[in-house]
Structures are given as C-alpha cells and as structure tokens.
Write a structure and sequence with these properties.
Elements: E1 8-10, E2 25-28, E3 44-47, E4 56-59, E5 66-70, H1 75-80, H2 90-99, H3 104-109, H4 112-118, H5 126-131, E6 135-139, E7 145-149, H6 150-153, E8 154-156, E9 159-160, E10 167-174, E11 181-187, E12 197-204, E13 209-215, E14 222-227, H7 232-239, H8 253-270
Parallel strand pairs: 1-3, 2-3
Antiparallel strand pairs: 4-5, 5-10, 6-7, 6-10, 8-9, 11-12, 12-13, 13-14
Residues 26-34, 36, 71, 100, 102, 106, 109-111, 113-115, 117-118, 120, 122-124, 162, 167-168, 194 line the site of flavin-adenine dinucleotide.
C-alpha cells in the first residue's frame, strides 16, 4: 500500500553515508511489512537493500567455523542455498519459512533481518536462531558494532534491544550447531493464520543437550535448557506451567499453554525420546 505520510525516501549507497538519524526514521529492507499497513509514526525511510548485506557464508577457517547470514538476505535465498547435507539443522529454517504461510512475494522479498527486527511475537525465524544459539552483530551510525545473543535480542512483541539508529548487520551461527537435530513445531487455527504456538527443539547428540524454544504463545522467544535424560520432556512440560502466555481474542493463555505442552511432547517424540 502507499504510505502517504512519508516525507523522505533515502537510498544511501553505504551505511557511512547515513550521518544522522531522526525520531521518525525507519530502516527499509524488503518492505513487505512496512508497506503492508499504515505506518503513522514513520516519516523517513532509509533503504538498505543496495548495501549488499545478503551473504550466506560459511567460514571454516576461524575457530570452530561460523555461518554468517547477512541482514538483507531474502528468505528465499535461505531456502535455495546449496547447504552441505551434514548441516541438518537448516531443515529448521526451511520449516520456519514454510510456516510463514505467506505469499511467494513475501518469501522472495522479505529479509532475514527484517523478520528478526520486526520482532513479532509470531516471528518465525527468531525461535530458530535462539535454538541454534545464534548471535546478532549490530552496527550503529558511529561505526561501532556489538554482539547480542539471539536469546537476548527480542524483549517483547515489536520490541528489541536495538537503540535508535542501530541496525542488524548479520546473524552468526557456529557451524557445529548446524549439525544439531532440529524440530520446528508450529500450531495455528489454520495454515494461513498467525501461529498460536511455536516450539523449536535443538538436540546436540554429542553433548547430549537439548535446547527448547517457546515462541508465538509468549511475547518473545523463551529458551529452556535442562540436562537431557529420559524424563527431561517432563521437566520442559512442567517448566512452562508458570510462564506468561499471551491472552487475546484469538486464544486464552491456558489454551496456548496446553498447545505448547502438546508441541513439546511431539518434539520429544520426533527425536525418538
Ligand atoms: C500477509 C503477511 C503475513 C505475515 N505473517 C507473518 C508470520 O506469521 N510470521 C512472521 O514472522 N512474519 C510474518 N509476516 C511478516 C513478514 O515475515 C515480514 O513482512 C518480513 O519478515 C519483514 O521483512 P522485510 O525485509 O520485508 O522487512 P521490512 O518490512 O522492510 O521491515 C520490517 C521492520 O524491520 C526493520 N528492519 C528491517 N531490516 C532491519 C535491519 N537490518 N536492522 C534493523 N531493523 C530492520 C524495519 O525498520 C521495520 O521496522 C507477515 C507479513 C505479511 C505481509
């Protein structure tokens, strides 16, 4: 849709060209959300699409190896990338993107950074990033960068730790974590509805450790970790009893909690525990 209140559209060639930042300014990536509804608080859009931040790179020479995913990497590129077969965790990305149930247009245009920074409670990529113990590299306009663990990035629905003028540059994931078994479970009333609950399990067979991320049923992804043993599915199920689940017109909190518990059980069953 047209955004009638936009006064300025800036298309700098590089982040260095952005020397100031205003109160009603917004980064523009794929634009799939920004142009999907009125943005009464946004007056200036700063387009970052031309900065070439869409890399998917595996750097095996650094200690342990890192996968980096640039912020403007379109979701479709994650789907089409020729991943090594040993990186079984990328199936989780594919499930997360398919779970979007969005049109092909959104999947082609929407970016990894846009999805993470939009920080919807139903955000599809964030729980995957938390499950894989990813980190985010954040840049500011003074040329400084900082690293934030994915689990600490989103603090509420539509709220992140990003300060004014900061932006996500890239996602960093240890290559070893791509070998974890991942199970991405989502429940919505219909495939095209926003999720009521998402549970992502990531099992590190070598360390016998399970990470479980609860999302969509809560305002921001929550990471749960217990030592893995025969009864640990019970630990996870009981630990969500006192969590604050979203209560709104789409579902009451108890319903979301119970669906989450079912998804946890299914996740464990899928891992064969
Ligand atoms: C019909 C429809 C249904 C959808 N359903 C879901 C859903 O169920 N689950 C889900 O996860 N998403 C859903 N989305 C959201 C969709 O995934 C987002 O539109 C998309 O992820 C945003 O990506 P984008 O690159 O287009 O971001 P944009 O629309 O360009 O930007 C989105 C926000 O992120 C900010 N931003 C973008 N990049 C950066 C960056 N690098 N650093 C800092 N801030 C940045 C922008 O300033 C803006 O505030 C839906 C969208 C539509 C239109």
């Amino acid at each position: 849709m047209d955004l009638h209140n936009i006064d300025n559209y800036l298309r700098p060639t590089d982040i260095n060209k952005v020397t100031a930042w205003g109160k009603n300014w917004s980064w523009l990536a794929g634009g799939t959300w920004l142009f999907s509804e009125p943005q009464p608080d946004v007056k200036t859009l700063v387009d970052i699409q031309a900065w070439g931040w869409d890399e998917i790179e595996v750097n095996s020479s650094s200690e342990g190896g890192l996968l980096t995913i640039g912020a403007t990497c379109p979701l479709i590129k994650l789907l089409k990338h020729p991943w090594l077969s040993e990186y079984i965790a990328v199936e989780g990305f594919k499930a997360a993107i398919s779970a979007l149930a969005a049109s092909l247009k959104v999947v082609n245009m929407a970016t990894v950074g846009g999805n993470i920074c939009l920080a919807l409670s139903v955000g599809t990529l964030a729980p995957m990033m938390v499950a894989l113990d990813a980190s985010y590299e954040i840049w500011n306009l003074q040329g400084k960068s900082r690293i934030v663990a994915a689990k600490d990035f989103q603090i509420a629905s539509r709220h992140t730790v990003l300060q004014s003028g900061e932006l996500l540059r890239r996602v960093l994931i240890p290559v070893e974590h791509l070998k974890w078994q991942v199970d991405y479970k989502r429940f919505g009333m219909a495939a095209s509805d926003p999720a009521l609950a998402i549970v992502v399990g990531a099992y590190n067979e070598i360390a016998n450790k399970m990470r479980l991320v609860i999302a969509a049923s809560v305002v921001a992804p929550v990471l749960l970790e217990f030592d893995h043993n025969l009864d640990s599915s019970l630990d996870y199920i009981t630990s969500v009893e006192n969590m604050d689940f979203i209560e709104d017109a789409r579902a009451i909190a108890i319903y979301r909690r119970q669906v989450t518990q079912v998804l946890i059980k299914r996740c464990f069953n899928n891992f064969g525990f």
